[in-house]
Design goal:
mainly alpha; 2 domains; 5 helices
């Protein structure tokens, strides 16, 4: 790997550079919360644009094909798009919940055990609400129960 590649910051969601902590900085202080607010708002905006694109695409492409195979193909394409938008709709709800946590100054701590989730984990998944250990345990329990 070249020296230049090592020096360039790796963009995360929506092209934001990872937050650079200042030594002695308070965890989830105002600058850190502002960073994650920007990241989450940009992510939400990108998702909302996708929704608009889907609606426009479905309006433009909707046709009553005489051939049943063509109609079925189009319906399958639309169904796949709608499933993807439904997942994104749920993600938008989670983003809104996370933005509220930031506003309430409760963002960044594990909802299960109360420890810091950590900036690196939040950069990877800004909507994370559990630390790695608690999330791992929750996933193990979920597999055992068979949810």
């Amino acid at each position: 790997m070249s020296t230049q590649a090592k020096q360039q910051p790796v963009p995360t969601i929506s092209g934001f550079e990872p937050y650079k902590e200042v030594p002695g900085e308070e965890y989830m202080g105002k600058p850190m919360r502002a960073h994650f607010t920007k990241v989450l708002n940009k992510w939400k905006q990108d998702l909302m644009q996708e929704v608009d694109r889907t609606v426009d695409h479905m309006k433009d492409e909707a046709a009553n094909f005489p051939d049943p195979a063509d109609r079925a193909s189009q319906e399958e394409e639309f169904a796949l798009e709608l499933r993807a938008r439904d997942r994104e709709r749920k993600l938008i709800k989670k983003i809104d919940k996370t933005l509220q946590l930031i506003e309430d100054e409760e963002y960044g701590w594990c909802e299960s055990c109360g420890v810091e989730i950590g900036v690196k984990r939040l950069e990877a998944r800004p909507t994370a609400d559990m630390c790695v250990d608690c999330k791992t345990l929750a996933e193990i329990k979920e597999k055992q129960v068979g949810k």
